[in-house]
Protein 1
Amino acid sequence: MPTGVERLLTIAIIFAVATSALYFFDRLKLRKTISKRNYWIKQVAYGLIFGALAVCGTEFGVPISGAVMNIRDAAPLSAALFFGPYAGIIAGLIGGIERWFAVYWGAGAYTRLACTLGTIFAGVFGAFVKKFILENRKPGFIYGGMIGVVTEVVHMLLVYYTNGDDPVQAHAVTTLCSPVMIPLVGLAVALPGFIITLVFKENLHPRNEEKRITQHIEAGLFIAVILAFITTNVMQYFIQDTIAIKAARDSINTTLEDVRGDIKASGIDANDNEAFEEFIADDIYSWHIGATGYLVVLNKDGYAVAYTKDALLEEERDCSDVIDSLLEQGAGECRKRTYDDISYYSGFFTYNDYIIVAMYPCNEADFSKDLTTLLTALLEVVILAVVFMMIYILIRIVIVNNLDKVNEDLAKISSGNLNTVVKVRTSSEFASLSDDINETVDTLKDYIDMAAAKVEEELAVAKNIQRSALPTMYPEDNRYELYANMLAAKEVGGDFYDFYELDDDRVVFLIADVSGKGIPAAMFMMTAKSVIKGFVQQGASPGVAFTKANERLCQDNAAEMFVTAWMGIMDVNTGHVVYTNAGHNPPVIKQKDGTIEFLKCRPGFVLAGMDGIHYKDFEFDLAEGQSLTLYTDGVTEATDAHNQLFGDDRLLEAVRESGNLNMRYTCKLIKQRVDEFVGEAPQFDDITMLGIKRKTDEDRLGYIALDATPESADEVRDFFDAFCEHYDVPFKASTKIMVMVDEIYSNIINYSGATHSVITAEYGDGKVIMSYQDNGIAYDPLAKEDPDITLSAEERKIGGLGIFMVKKMAEDVKYTRVNGTNILDVVLEI
């Protein structure tokens, strides 16, 4: 390897190491200190650094065989590829401008324009590749090398283009520089990519990681381009070589024929050697081949008797070996031979004892071939690089980008957003793919809707089964009132309550919560409810019933569920309550004077949690006017949007706020306060409440239960007359009450189909609160459109006027249906 090439190789390696070191510094330091707002500061900084390296490439070029070679173009290329497109453009401009003016202090003027344009092109081309081909990735060893090769090939082509008036000199410079500068620039760009890949593991893909389509395309296109380049250039070389040999042979044969014709025309006697040599010596200077070819006349002894000026085979040289070689060749043939390290095409013919030899230097004869072959090779590199980039960009735009859009939509669909519509319609294939995906999603949505409907149907059945296991007919007793309700969450839950009379003087009430959700919890709930009720009806106290139920529930409890429960048995005459607690929330006891507190009692362990647990009986007395409110943790653990719990304090406040209202209103108010607290947050747990209260005389005054018959209408009127008289309700208000009673109760007995009804009335805080309950068909009178009272009686539709009057007179009217019972609540302000 020539010393100059070794020096240039060393410079290329040093340049690559410096680029890698700068990249490490950028990766480890600058990225921590320079914000995105200062992106341009970094681009300018690296543009200046690599611009300075490009200047050094010009100033420290290596002289080789009369030319000054360098790897200047590697600087702007590396700046763009490793540090950003704008850094490359800045470095290219700096290096190119400096090369233009460098002729004033000794740089070569012949390639001035080509080198200037080549350096600027390196920065722009590197920026383009970084942005649109690599998509801001770092190039690896192979791609870095190929980008460097393509850039320097363009530089060599610029030498031809800018010196078109002197192709011989341009070809000489290019032939000398190309084998050195092209591979070394490629190496200077490839090495940093190799080093960075090893250190930071960038652009490496594990074997088990799937490659992107573009990566497969890159590899395939690269192989195709290399094969195309090799194939076309090998064919081009052999074709051009054949053409060059034929042209050389034709030139030699034509010249020899001209010589033979001149000899014949001279009229020299063929046997007169002296005359022949004299003729040849005078005439040979008029014979030539091309610009530098010549002829030599050899005698039988192997010496030249005549020759063109500066001919290789001079007179004093013994050329017998040449004669032997020519005779082996045969007259009329054209062969390539080397004399004194210079290659020639040669041909000859014999004349008596002389051999007339034509010598055509290969460097002239093959110039057209060499020029065409090298120029074609350089052009093919550029053409194939352009084809590579265009195909790559086209495939990315037409296929890969659209596939990415499809995948983005599919990711949304996979995450559960089935309303996503794929709208990639840039081609018929993608339009068809989009339609197929959308149709598949629509079909999937239909299946999901069907499955959801089936699940909803099954859940509805399960809920109905669960509700059917809960008592719905509340006791009608003047000594106490009891109300219970369960508001299930979306899923079937495990909350339940129970109440029943053991005899005329004792009532059992229970509330419980099964762990878990869904149908298994509901089934376990029904089992627990039945088991507990069975032991109580056999005469067991609450503690004994829980003890035996726990033993039974622990058997075959494969699901490992458990139950929290609170149960009491009250003597309705005395208010004496015997109760037990299996890990449940303490109930709220409200005194007649409005004092609120939790019932203090140490809870036992949960049911079905552990075998061998014994539960104790506890006692307390519930006086007239006192009430007990039981609830599940769905009340106190109701959560709002900020993840805050409803809690015990809000529960106590809601019970206190209910005043002396009956237990249905107390439970209803608690639920209302829970809903207000939770807001838009979903209900995650069942909300179950049970309230029991010993009645006072005033409570008995505001309660009536009767069969829903036309004859019972008078009893209802008498009930409200007594109520208004007891509370001294003003005449105007009592008149409104009686109008409401007539309208509402007449609907119950005439249209509802009910067989039984319960009416309650309460007075307090300047308001009368009435509740009408019946077991008739489900019917919401408030849903009926209000009549147009501006029309005459003949023009108005029949019906709806009575309930319209009720709504106008009342402060508030609400309808609900609970456990098969129609409930219409009316609030009248006195």
Protein 2
Amino acid sequence: MRLVRLVLKNFRSYRDADIGFGDGLLLVLGENGSGKTSILEAIRIALFKESNERIDELVHQGSESMKVSLEFVSNGNEYRVERERRRGSSTARLFHLDNPNSPPTQGDREVSREIRKILGIDGEHFLNAIYVKQGEIDQLINESAGERKKIIAKLLGIESLQTAWEGMRMIIEPSNRRRQLLEAELRRAGDIEGALKSAREIYEKKVRQKEELERKALCHRIRLEAQRARLKELDGLSEKYTEIFNGLRETEERIADRQRRVGSLNWELEQIARGEARMAALAKETRRIVPMERLGELIARREQLRSEIEKIRKEIELLESRFREVKDRIRKDIANCSRILGREVADIQAIEEAAQDEIQRMDRELKETRSQREGLVRTISSMEGGIVIVRERMEALRSAKGACPVCEAPLTEERRAGLLDEDAATIAQYQCEIERIRGEEKIIASRIEEITKRRDLVLRTVNIAALRGMTDQQTDYYDRCEERLSARADRERELSEIEREISGLESEAGVTASVDANTFRKEWDRLRLVEREYHQLTGMVNRRGRVQEELSTLQGEIGSLMKRAESLRTGISMLKYDKKAHEELREATEQTSAELHRLELGEISARAEMESATREIERLEGEMEKVKSAASEIQRIDLHIARLQKIRNLFGKDGVQRDLRMIARPIIERNMRTFFSEFNFEYSDVQLDEDYEITLFGPSGKIGVGMMSGGERIAVAIAMRLALAKALAGGAVEAIMLDEPTIHLDTQRRRDLIQVFKRLGNIPQMLVVTHDEELQEVADTTIMVRKTHGISSAQVLLPDSTTVAQ
């Protein structure tokens, strides 16, 4: 298979990219994170929908869908596969470009199945064949033979066979555990037989116990019935006795209650007579209460108004003082703003306009000065970068041997010394110019600091909001002062009216307004007590008629209740009820009932124990049946385990794994010999042993990997990887993809790898993803990848650096 064209729409960091692939060595070149590896990932997704991340995460941020389209050639036929992903859904189509009339294959599964049929292998083996991961070349060079064998086994799929061999243990283990349980069952046969005999003996004992309890319970039931019949008769007499006795007690209590009430009413009539005489003495004092109450209210209000007037006077003085203070502060702040701004201002509006003009002027000057400083800083940074480049070039010149590291022209010592002197002079010129520019930058920085301080001073001093707040505060103090003056006038008018009303009430109340508060309060409290006593006496006197009427009614009720009590006493003597005999019979009945209940519980317990013994017998008999069937089940399990173990051995190292290694090793060795011969080294043969140890045969005999040069080792690693690819692909390798093949190689090995690529010519298409610019010298086509503001782009360059696609 060879790649022809890749089109990306909103895929990862690519918005829109169209990349054409030619034959030969194709170099995908760019910085780390620019989007190089995304091209390989897009090829994997297009062919097999394989990615290390969820498909939804591959859609470019801010887009609703992504699309990947890949054109490729396989077995001389040309195809195009398209995969599109929207949020929550996906589509896939495969076109046969050699036959435009053929309908496309549609659907993810159908397209993937058709591609596997076209390529002849599935996605995992296809990627193992043509896709060389980062660091894989370095591992094939530097790892031991054992580790190299593991890498090759993983690529060939042998590792999955080992995983299957280990997984079979988990399938066999449940059968082994079941067999162990069955063996334990066989060992329990004697214990179960003894437990069964004991359970049967317990059952017989409980049957005899239950029959004895049933006999005793029958006797107690007969006795209990006779006792309950006699008890029922006595309960009837007891109810009648209790009814008559309670009626007599209630009647006697009612008689006593009414006699007590008669005595209480006679005492109350005596108190009413005394109350009438006392009311006549208190009548004069009660007429002073109403004017006295009003006078007290007026005196209290007069004192309250005097206190409020004095409080308002102090508030007015405080407001006037604060009004003057705020006025002085406003005048001082306006004068200070005039001094800071450098011009005379009369009010807040003028201050605000002057401050805005000054701030705008300083902002313009700051912007111009900072722009000048940034230009100087960029110039210094550019010159320092130039110094670093020149120093790196000098270091390369010092270590170069025979050829210029830049142009690879012959390099003499005289030429080297001349170039080093030129570079030293260039560095000195840069350093002198940097010192001069830094001096200018310090002057400009000082001017920026001066303007910034001046601007901060204006912002800190000219506080328009504070001035407006003080003006509002001044107005508020003035309004509040006017309000309190009006309130004082209102209270003084009310005080005058109260003084006139107090003068008119003094004679009525029997006390002067000038009396001290303590004396007034005592007199008022005395009058309140007189009033309360008078009202109480009035209520008592008004009850005289009701008391006399109730007294007459009670005397009639007492005569009727005495006649009823005598009749109830006669009824009690005629019942002839014996309470002691009744209680003794009740106790005997309760004892008989309790004993019967105990016997019935014993019956229930014996019956339950019989049922428990029956269940235990049935359980043990079932256990005996299980034990008898355990032996035959063990035989079946042994046969099952033997079959599973045989299957497991097939996946083991001595089974299919060994066969696959034996088949693959000579194929890999043969393919490796073919590829290695193209590098034109002075070796006649290359061989692999069973542990994949590599041996070369040359003029000086055979040598191992440790004796090879760096270039020879890289050539061997490349030949081995291409041999693996050809073995996995099942035929000729038309294309191979290498991801950062130089990532773990030092400078010399990277150069050796470049030389190996120059000599390699039997792979029609090699796609190399790298950030190493040295590989450009051997590339037939370079795909330059860049990322700008988060968007990746790809340009296809021919060897003369001409852009042909984007």
Protein 3
Amino acid sequence: MGNKVKICKSLVAGFLAVAMLFTAHTGSDLKVKAAQFNGNEFGVGFAGEEHATMHKADGWSNGGMFNCTWRAANVWFDGYLNIKIDRDTNGGYSGGEYRTNDAFGYGMFDVSMKPIKNTGVVSSFFTYTGPSDGTVWDEIDIEFLGKDTTKVQFNYYTDGQGNHEYLYNLGFDASQSFHQYGFLWQPGKITWYVDGKAVYTATNNIPTTPGKIMLNAWPGTGVDSWLGAYNGNTPLVAQYDWINYKKVDNGGGSTGGSTGGSTGGSSNNNSGSNNNVSAGTTTVPTVGSNFTIEAENYTYMQGVEAAGGSVGYIDPGDWMSYEINVQTAGTYSVEFKLASAQGGSSFKLQKDSGKETLANVSVPNTGDWGAYKSVYADVYLTAGKNNLAIATDTGAFNIDKMVFSAKGGSTNNNTNNNNNNWNNNTNNNTNNNTNNNASSGTTNVPTVGSNFTIEAENYTYMEGVEAAGGSVGYIDPGDWMSYEVNVQTAGTYSVEFRLASAQGGSSFRLEKDSGKETLANVSVPNTGDWGAYKSVYADVYLTAGKNNLAIATDTGAFNIDKMVFSAKSSGTRTTTTTSTTTTTNNNNNNWNNNTNTNTNTNTNTNTNTNNNTNNNNVSSGSNTTTTAGSNFTIEAEKYNYMQGVEAAGGTVGYIDPGDWMSYSVNVQTAGTYTVEFRVASAQGSSFRIEKNSGSERLCEVTVPNTGDWGAYQSVYADVYLTAGNYDISIATDRGGFNIDNMKFTAKSGSNNNTTTTTTTNNNNNNNNNNNTWNNNNNNNTWNNNSWNNNSWNWGGSWW
């Protein structure tokens, strides 16, 4: 966590006071007192302008340190909300501001945004009300200072009194990709969040007056010690994907409590000197094979409150401990009854004052602080006295009880192997009739051939989702669906997932056998609407016989229509190499994770032992591997494989969403590298840099509008490269762009004495065009199914 910074207290406070008072007299669009929003949730996705709920500032200036005039032309929409700093017609600078018409009270405010990286400027998301609204000046801020976008500043004003700045170290560069930022505002308390994790809480002199939600970007003057000197660079653009507000019911919500305290779940049972730890029941019950622990019957706790037969006000660092005397050692399935009006919450079930973690548990957004859902995990309990503790990691939640059901009494020789969350039978007691919280669907186990389809709504069991109109929706983090199939032939299958989401950042796992094996990690793109289905692909290996498959949601929200499986190869997975003269052919390091064993003989015959059929949608290019030292360059046109692009004049163009290029590299020294991408675009675009057929995402890159398809600019990102031989791929998300090259420069852990070489394999008998990124990715079509066009999860907040 960053250090608290008090920057130019009197100077900045004075400037802001002047600026806001000036706004009251010059902002003609602010003279009418804002109506207070009286709903429970407000969300805007910035696919287009929301005329009815928000408006642009135009033609006036705050004055003071705001070195700009607000211009409506500096705010526009192209799939994102863009706010620009530019030269102005009056000889100075112009900025942009977009604001709600209504004022909002206590609740959760969050945004997905990407700020400007440039000294002397600010990109922000905040609430404000003041004299122009006929109120006192109350304000709550999330501000990015362009001089260092690896940090974010939190601040607030109460009746004009500020000086509450706090600078938090993000651990990433916010200007390089979209992240989620927000604050939970309650009476007497504000907690700020980054990507769903609570990172800072303020409790002193908290504002009380509802304010408008505002987003702006502006250059500063006279505050160089705060922002750095503005260098006059234009145009500069901040981007916003969505905003969201959720009213908080403070009567039953879980948002209070200490932000400090124990993070290890220690119960301090032998000491009465810790005044922060409260004792509850001291009874140690002897339990049988099935037993229940009521949450409020803790032995000791810190930071929580018990009421109405449950425990609430649980925040990061809070904990409760429970003592039981277990009669029979064995594995127990634990049903946790949980409620939360926000996503991103998690806790650990620990043993013996945090010495052993039994399970990591994710708490889904159940829709309300009083709407309890069941989440499951398997744990191993030893016979005798067990001291169990719930230790909160992230978010906030309420808990009603924990129900333990014995699964077996055998001795467990590895007491740590139940530490995984979903992967150790969390939420997946699909064949156990005692699991009343997992809803069953079809019980038919179909026998499938080499090509088959699983309709999403034909799940065997599920938790937390809803099926309607031939699809499944209302899928939130922690929700899951399981499907049983009887596979006739073992082999590698390409899976087409038909997905829809009106937000980015969603992901799930395709798992097997109650989460014991993860077959694929799948990222869900923002398809533009909950009913606009797109295809996303992954390769998986299925064994012959009965397979229990499950979709386990990690982040975000999405809808799914179906999964289409197409056989790519048959047989057991082997890594057989037969050769008289062995040649390493790095064309196998392509986009997909198929294991291809190439056999090269003296007669230069290349045999693909996986018997894959050629896929003409994927084209091969340069058969080279870049041996990478501390500084190396990958020329864009030197791809090993590509789909949908064209190389000409030493660059690659005609790059559209779904297109990709892969490059083989041999990294000699692991470390962090800064990558300079030379890109050009006459529109805004974005892409991902991925590793090993998309199994790992290295970074997300936004391509600015450079003004012309031939006007190349440099865009930078930091990536961590492991040592070894693998492929790096460019996968296009949005828009169109051209790329010239990628220049990698070591930042840490690299050997500066290593040179860059390129080796070429002259084997022309390549039959590896079959390993495609998406198996007809260019055939993705929009599905007009509008089953889930409602705004049930605007913007993907953690509510």
